[in-house]
Each structure stands twice: as C-alpha cells, then as structure tokens.
Design goal:
The complex is a heterotrimer of chains A (about 100), B (about 350) and C (about 160). Chain A has about 100 residues and is an all-alpha fold. Chain A is built from three helices and no strands. The longest helix of chain A is centred in the last third of the chain and has 31 residues, at about 55-85. Chain B has one domain (about 1-345). The relative contact order of chain B is 0.14. Chain C is globular and about 55 Å long. The mean pLDDT of chain C is about 85. Classes of the chains: A mainly alpha (about 100), B mainly alpha (about 350), C mainly alpha (about 160). Chains in contact: A-C, B-C. The interface of B and C includes residues 73 and 150 of B.
C-alpha cells in the first residue's frame, strides 16, 4: 500500500525534529518530550519494517519499547521533580554545576 | 466501497441522533428519579410530566451569557469541553446495537465498525478522557477547578487500571476482544444436568466478581456518586467545571451522560448478553427486537446509576483512592487468577 | 486508502513542529499527544492494529498524562529564549538539515518504491500474544521486573524525605 521508503522518510523527519528540539530547547520537560518524539519515530520505522518483511517481530519490539518508555518516563519525571525541588528552576542553563 | 461508506455515514447519523436524544432525556430521567427518591415531584410543568424540560434546558444553554474569566488559558480552555464531548461520543463507534440485516443482497451490521480490538478501543478512548478534565481544571487558572481537575485525573487513572483488569476475565472466557464476538459467545442457554435451558449463557453468571469490580470502577471513571468528590457541589463549588458557563458547561454535562451510557452499554455487552433475548415474529421484527432488548438492558443500568446517586453518600478522597488501589486492584487480579485456572482446567 | 497515510503523516509532522517550536510546555505536550495519536493511526494503516491501540492506551493515555500532570504540578511557565547557545543554533541547524537530506537520499536510492509487499500476517491480539508468550517470554518477564524497579525508583526519587 504505502512503500517502505515513505514510512521511513516520515520516521526520519520526526526523528530529526526530535533532535532539533532536544538541542535547541531549554526547558527540561520539553527536552524529555523531544526524546519521546525520537523514540516514537524509531517505533514507526520498526512497524514499517515489520510490514515489509511480513513478520510480527517488529510489532513486538514496539510493544516492549512502549513499556520501557513508560518506565523511563516515570523515573525521568521523578528525577525532574527532585531537580526542581533542589534548584527551583526548569531551565537546563541553571543545571550546569559540573561545568568549569 | 461506496456502499460501505454510505451505510457507515447513515449509521453514524443514527447513532449520533440516538445518543444525543438519550443524553437529553437522561437528564430528565435523572431529575425525575432523584426527585421521587426524595419524595418530591421533579420537573412537572414544562410539557406533560416535564417531558419537554430537556428542550427548555437546551434553549436555556444556548441563550445563557457566556462568562469567561480574564486569566484563563484560552486555547486549552476552549479545547477541554470539546475534547470531552468528542471523546465521549467516539466510543459509540464500536458498540453493536443488534445483529444485522440484508440490504440489496449485502449484510449491514448494526454497528458502525467491528474492530478486532474493539474493547481496547473503548479503553483507549477512556484513557484519553482524563485529559479533558485535567486541562479544564488547569486552564481555568483558579483554585477550585485546579483541585477538582487534579483529583479527578488521579481518580480516573487509578480506576482505569481496575476497570481493565476486571474485564480480562470476560476476555479470557470469550477468547476475543471484539465486542460482537463477546456477545455472540453468550448466546444459548446453560445446559448443566438438570436445569435444561432456562438460564441464558450470560457472562454475569460466570463472572460475578468481575461484573461488580467493573461496575464499581466504571462509576469511579465517570465521576458519579459515590465517587464524585472531584465535582461535588458541596465540596469544591463545581470542581473542574466551575469556571465554565452556558454551552461549554453543557458540553461537559453531555459528555458525562454520554460516558454513563457508554459504560452501561459495555456492561450489558460484556456481562448481560448485549442484544440477546427472546426472539419471535416476522423478519423485520427479528431485526428490531435485539435493539429493543439492548436498549432495555442499558436503561436498567442507567436507572441503577441514577438510583445510586439518590441513595448513597459520597466517598472521601482518601477513602476513594485507597479503595481503588487496595481493594479493587487485588480483587481484579484475583478474578483473573481464578478465571484463568478454571479456563485452563476446562480446556485440559 | 494510501491517501490517509499521507494526511496523517502531514498531521504528525505539523504537530511535531509544534512540539519543537512552542514556548509553553503545556502546548508542546498537547502537540506531542497529537503526534502520538497520528502515529497510532499510521500503525493501523500498516496492519498493526493491536500495537496501535496499545500505543494510544500506554503512550498517549498514560505516559503523556504523567507529563501533563508534572507540567501542571511544577507550574512550568513560558520558556525564556536562552542567550547562550549561539553556536548550537548556527552550526546545528544546517548540520541537521544535511543529516536529514542524506538519510532521505539513502532511503530513496536503496529502497525502490515498487518493492514487493508480502501478504499481511494476522496481526490481531491472538497472533501478537502467541508470539509474545512463545518466543519472547523472557523479555516479557524482564520488562515486568524493569517496571517494578522503575516504580520503586520513581517513588523514592519523588518523596519529600526518605
């Protein structure tokens, strides 16, 4: 139906947008959301390949990825909350105590 | 292809009309039933026995002044009621209202679409429904809505889990997630030695715990009494919809009733045999009778909902959360364990 | 049928742009939810119906709720544009564009549009569940331990005092 190249093209555009957000944004939570965007782009690539090869293993990989992403989001947001309590700021410019 | 598109559009029109009318008259039913529980009359003057009250209410909502506080976050403030309304009506896309009939040689099912994962679709729409309340509470930029919104989202997330677990027993028995397959699996009568054929093969008789857990979790999901602390009038002014007026408030109101109807429909489909009931008569009656049985069962559930509202007091918030996590979740897990043991033993 | 793929691809890209360009975190979160739902529809079009619904329930319905509630809890305001990373902006954007162009070219060159598409396998819950519990039962059990560890970690980290 849809050629694999188009699915991969969409996946790559989303991935690059995720990288762009990850590099240029200053708010920690937004950076985390761009990471999730990147991960979803990769999931889409896996489903595209699963369809092209006619197997379900790619879909299962996405299933596991969703579960791991949930675990990662929970711990990451807990870290962000703890960080906010310590620094009173959500900008990564203020989180550079290891610099110099 | 165009036949499919046309019949689907007609079905969508029917379902929308049916659900909107039911939502309107559900408000009338609620006011009447609660009034009679409280020994008073309820709406009586507008039309015979107040039957035109929903029409009057609708006109009132249109003409009421739309008061918007200054500090609200405009896009999200507007988005929340429309999101609630849209999601509440989206779940009717997979609910089967009856069997099927033949039109020009092709079969038309009385269901907008029969997804293989229909039940999961309902859960997906329910989990998205948390956003409308959280965003409404947050965007109103005021204390009471924020508390109401956060409490309500926490409550809905906690009870979503118990809701899904309670239903897994039914899925194990029916072996399918498609709502039509689950109902078809319940056709026929139990034939144990002795009682030949008077007890219908409904899932309520094999999943009583599952049904009780499902219905309790569903009442908490739809924020109804006894779980309606997030929007209780005496506690939080109006909860998450305090700062909404006229049409936007009407949308929240309609979304809540539509959610109630969805939950009742799912309860009848999963546990009470959906559209199955005594069948007789000519072929056109055979198509309409299942719809009638389905509506009758859904009506019983809605009446039960309203009955509970008039009878039970409200849970305190910590009692509510403790109940969801410490009672309903273990009960759901126990139900899954028992059901899977029985299913495996029977198949062995 | 294929036109739906492109419509939802456009929706996903516009929403992803919105995630990256919006200054307020709540709007970024809501745009990310739109991206996730659009990607779920793409999964449906790629014959992965179970995974599509799982994506909506888990990602858009649970993970993003967590994000939105944390943003509300921490009262994240509009982001102030930073004055520091000039280099990142002037060097990064062209490099990213070059990266994207290179990958798109590789895909266009090596994956012809008329590759043979095999028959779609049964991808309902029964098929996915069968594969999950036969071939992938070990990762399944490991992810359950992973989730347990994550829950414990989140509770410990977010506590006010241990």
């Amino acid at each position: 139906m849809v050629p694999l190249s188009h699915v991969l093209a969409l996946s790559m555009i989303l991935f690059v947008l995720g990288i762009a957000g990850f590099i240029f944004r200053r708010n920690v939570i937004t950076i985390f959301m761009c990471i999730e965007l990147m991960l979803n782009a990769v999931n889409l690539a896996f489903i595209g390949f699963a369809r092209q090869l006619g197997q379900l293993d790619g879909q299962l990989y996405v299933f596991f990825r969703s579960v791991v992403a949930a675990a990662e989001a929970a711990v990451g947001l807990a870290i962000i909350i703890a960080l906010y309590r310590n620094r009173e700021s959500l900008s990564i410019d203020d989180l550079d105590s290891m610099r110099n | 292809m165009t036949f499919l598109v046309l019949t689907t559009l007609v079905k969508i029109g029917f379902v929308l009309f049916f659900v909107l009318t039911t939502v309107a008259y559900l408000s009338w039913l609620e006011r009447k039933v609660i009034a009679h529980i409280q020994s008073r009359w309820g709406p009586y003057r507008v039309g015979p026995h107040g039957l035109l009250q929903p029409v009057a209410d609708g006109i009132k909502f249109f003409f009421k002044e739309d008061i918007v506080p200054l500090e609200v976050d405009w896009p999200i403030y507007l988005l929340a009621p429309f999101l609630a309304f849209a999601l509440a009506f989206l779940s009717f896309a997979v609910i089967p209202f009856g069997t099927s009939f033949q039109l020009r040689g092709r079969t038309v099912f009385l269901q907008i679409t029969d997804l293989d994962v229909g039940l999961l679709f309902i859960f997906a729409v329910t989990s998205l429904g948390v956003y409308s309340i959280a965003l409404a509470g947050w965007s109103s930029n005021s204390k009471y809505p924020l508390f109401g919104g956060l409490r309500s989202s926490a409550q809905m997330i906690s009870y979503e889990l118990s809701l899904a677990l309670a239903v897994i027993g039914v899925i194990l028995i029916s072996g399918s997630l498609s709502l039509r397959d689950i109902v078809v699996h319940q056709s026929g009568f139990w034939q144990p030695a002795g009682l030949s054929g008077f007890l219908p093969r409904w899932n309520i008789f094999v999943q009583p715990i599952g049904f009780l857990a499902y219905f309790t979790a569903a009442i908490a999901e739809t924020n109804r009494i006894p779980f309606d602390l997030p929007e209780g009038e005496t506690e939080l002014v109006g909860g998450f919809h305090t700062e909404y007026s006229s049409l936007k408030f009407a949308m929240f109101f309609m979304a809540e009733y539509a959610n109630m109807i969805t939950v009742s429909c799912i309860a009848t489909l999963l546990f009470f045999g959906g559209w199955l009931g005594p069948m007789f008569g000519p072929p056109w009656l055979q198509v309409l009778l299942p719809v009638f049985w389905f509506c009758a069962k859904v009506f019983c559930f809605l009446f039960f909902y309203i009955w509970m509202r008039g009878t039970l007091p409200r849970f305190r918030y910590d009692q509510l959360m403790a109940f969801g996590w410490k009672v309903l979740l273990p009960v759901g897990l126990l139900n899954i364990l028992l059901t899977s043991l029985v299913v495996t033993w029977r198949n062995a | 049928m294929a036109i739906l793929f492109y419509i939802f691809a456009a929706v996903a890209i516009i929403a992803a742009l919105n995630v990256v360009l919006q200054r307020t975190p709540v709007y970024s979160a809501l745009s990310l939810i739109v991206v996730l739902c659009a990607i779920a529809v793409e999964y449906l079009l790629l014959n992965a119906e179970f995974i599509a619904v799982i994506q909506v329930i888990v990602y858009a319905g649970a993970i993003m709720v967590l994000f939105v509630l944390v943003i509300m809890l921490l009262n994240a305001r509009r982001e102030v544009p930073s004055s520091r990373s000039r280099v990142a902006r002037w060097l990064g954007l062209p490099l990213l564009a070059a990266f994207l162009a290179e990958m798109l070219f590789a895909v266009w060159r090596y994956l012809p549009a008329n590759m043979a598409l095999p028959e779609a396998p049964a991808s309902g819950p029964a098929a996915v569940g069968g594969l999950l519990f036969r071939n992938y039962v070990l990762p399944f059990e490991l992810t359950s331990i992973l989730i347990l560890v994550a829950v414990l970690g989140a509770v410990v980290l977010a506590k006010k005092q241990l």
